[in-house]
Q: What sequence folds into this?
């Protein structure tokens, strides 16, 4: 989630694991703690079918992704294999429980492990699930939450857990801390006497990340660049699932001792990945040498609002600390700030859209064409000011949709040969280069007119790629009709993006008209 703390049973059960040794909770957990509760089994033929489908999934996902307008092309095939796997595994899913029943036990666990819970309580938070409620007045900038490292599920705790040996063997786990955390979480979930059970029991049982969207719900994202991100996220998770499913079939001692080999369904993996994605936070490693990721109980019950980072890790005390970003009255919901993310990023990584988001922005991909005879020269100038000749830029919500970087890119992108040679030849000064990003300095009126006319036209074209208008979206959103979370989020996201495009068009057209006067 934040920085200063940046937020950011697949197969049949084998015989009970009597041979597996008990170990001390949250201590040396190299061995499986105890025999797992009996799990439903898949028939031999169903197991074989899942194995075949997993191989198919690996093949489909191994094909290079189709970029651009054809991004939908791969999805139906991947989705159809995943859905067949899910259908075969449907009898193996854990029963859905009411998490709120486990809140008292969780609070007791926190208190017995030294957490002061006198400031906040967990409480229903409207459309945001649950959140933290102030039990007393919390003054702005006061420290209201301190969570010791020993309560966190981290990459370090994963290494010293039953998963540790697999981490030492597997290059993917070594390189991808978020996947390590997801598997760590699953191992602890399926280890009945895990130290972390009171925490795991209060986690949501499902999420609204795009991994949970149906194909119809994904259609709500059409027109938005977020659709491509959602599809590639789905593809990546499907590929990871297939990879780990296969790995977990191996009869190696460091695998057979894992408590997840009988529970590794697609739904379980999607749940674990979504838990990590929506709740993880950056923390320093135990030795303080690097930044890593962890799940911080209770702190991760805070919902997001506009503001600034107020959480940090106190290395001396080995605790995560959270300060109030403003005054909160007793009974009020206590928020934190997850980071300056766009609604597209919130949707993909956090499973929500925040209409009041001050930091919303729309990603647009721009590049100097390799067929442009001035490609070489333009690329050199852009590189000198730290801008790649082909990359993503952003149009921002608010008064100034175009920032200095995009302006500089567009000035060079639209520049003719004479001007490029005159201003940005061999003996170009740093001062001239710096001016490219400066809104108050015009290179030439002609160049400036081209810039604003280009962005005005591009924004208008982007607006047309959405299948509906902003008015149509607003009328559905405000119609009082019952909408699913993905439908609502899709509408909120599209409305926000269209507003950014409309304000860009207005802004660019005023700039252009001023120059034409
Ligand atoms: C770190 S958790 C916060 C606790 C969470 N609400 C719960 O019930 O467990 C982050 C999740 O809370 C929800 N959330 C947080 N801030 C939100 C906001 N401003 N609007 C809507 N949902 C929000 C989203 O579902 C997000 O994935």
A:
């Amino acid at each position: 989630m934040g920085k200063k703390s940046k937020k950011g049973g697949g197969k049949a059960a084998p015989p009970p694991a009597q041979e597996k040794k008990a170990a001390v909770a949250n201590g040396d957990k190299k061995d499986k703690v105890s025999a797992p509760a009996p799990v439903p089994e898949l028939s031999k033929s169903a197991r074989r079918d899942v194995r075949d489908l997993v191989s198919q999934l690996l093949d489909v996902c191994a094909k290079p992704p189709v970029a651009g307008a054809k991004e939908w092309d791969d999805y139906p095939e991947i989705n159809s294999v995943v859905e067949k796997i899910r259908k075969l595994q449907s009898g193996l899913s854990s029963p859905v429980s009411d998490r709120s029943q486990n809140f008292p036990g969780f609070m007791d666990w926190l208190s017995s492990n030294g957490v002061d819970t006198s400031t906040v309580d967990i409480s229903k938070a409207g459309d945001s699930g649950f959140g933290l409620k102030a039990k007393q007045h919390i003054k702005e900038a006061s420290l209201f939450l301190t969570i010791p490292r020993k309560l966190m599920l981290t990459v370090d705790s994963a290494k010293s857990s039953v998963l540790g040996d697999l981490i030492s063997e597997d290059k993917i786990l070594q390189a991808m801390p978020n996947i390590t955390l997801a598997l760590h979480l699953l191992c602890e979930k399926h280890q009945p006497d895990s130290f972390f059970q009171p925490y795991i029991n209060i986690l949501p049982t499902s999420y609204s990340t795009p991994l949970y969207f149906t194909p119809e719900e994904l259609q709500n994202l059409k027109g938005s660049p977020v659709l491509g991100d959602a599809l590639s996220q789905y593809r990546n998770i499907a590929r990871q699932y297939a990879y780990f499913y296969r790995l977990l079939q191996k009869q190696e001692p460091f695998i057979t001792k894992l408590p997840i080999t009988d529970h590794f369904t697609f739904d379980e993996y999607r749940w674990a990945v979504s838990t990590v994605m929506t709740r993880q936070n950056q923390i320093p490693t135990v030795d303080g040498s690097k930044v890593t990721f962890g799940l911080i109980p209770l702190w991760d019950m805070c919902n997001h609002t506009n503001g600034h980072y107020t959480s940090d890790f106190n290395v001396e005390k080995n605790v995560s600390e959270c300060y109030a970003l403003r005054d909160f009255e007793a009974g009020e919901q206590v928020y934190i700030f997850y980071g300056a993310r766009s609604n597209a990023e919130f949707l993909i990584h956090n499973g929500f859209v925040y209409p009041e988001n001050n930091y919303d922005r729309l990603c647009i991909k721009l590049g100097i064409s390799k067929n442009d005879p001035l490609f070489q020269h333009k690329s050199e100038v852009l590189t000198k000011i730290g801008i790649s000749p082909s990359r993503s830029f952003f149009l921002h919500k608010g008064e100034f949709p175009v920032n200095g970087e995009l302006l500089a890119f567009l000035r060079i992108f639209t520049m003719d040969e004479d001007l490029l040679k005159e201003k940005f030849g061999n003996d170009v000064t740093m001062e001239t280069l710096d001016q490219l990003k400066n809104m108050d300095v015009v290179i030439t009126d002609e160049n400036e007119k081209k810039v604003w006319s280009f962005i005005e036209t591009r924004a208008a074209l982007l607006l047309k790629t959405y299948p509906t208008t902003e008015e149509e979206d607003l009328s559905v959103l405000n119609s009082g009709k019952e909408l699913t979370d993905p439908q609502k989020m899709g509408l909120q996201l599209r409305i926000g993006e269209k507003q950014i495009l409309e304000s860009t068009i207005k802004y660019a057209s005023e700039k252009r008209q001023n120059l034409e006067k």
